[in-house]
Design a protein that fits this description.
The structure is a single chain. With 96 residues, this protein is mainly α. It has two domains: 48 residues; 34 residues, no CATH class. The radius of gyration is 17 Å and the shape is elongated. The model has no long low-confidence stretch (mean pLDDT 82).
Length: 96
């Protein structure tokens, strides 16, 4: 297996779940340091959880769609709109 891209969404979510589970070895160690030191099978288990969490968000809720439309319609530009702010607003709405 090739090494995962540290900036991939799966890796970001896996690390967030890992950190939420309290895997920090000492108060002086960051979650990234603890993650890097942990066993491959532990990290892979968190990647599987991350994929499941991301897959659950594949279909947006009505509230997320509404949030995306609000953000896109508020962008007063003539060129194609950047979806970044709409995406962030949709995810923020999902977390409420």
């Amino acid at each position: 297996m090739t090494a995962p891209d540290d900036d991939s969404m799966v890796e970001r979510v896996a690390k967030a779940i890992y950190q939420a589970d309290g895997f920090m070895l000492t108060m002086c160690e960051t979650a990234d340091e603890s993650w890097a030191k942990d066993r491959d099978d532990v990290r892979e288990r968190y990647r599987l959880k991350a994929r499941a969490a991301i897959a659950a968000m594949r279909e947006p809720t009505v509230a997320m769609i509404d949030a995306g439309f609000v953000t896109i319609s508020s962008q007063k530009i003539k060129r194609p709109r950047d979806p970044t702010s709409a995406y962030k607003h949709m995810i923020h709405t999902a977390l409420l």
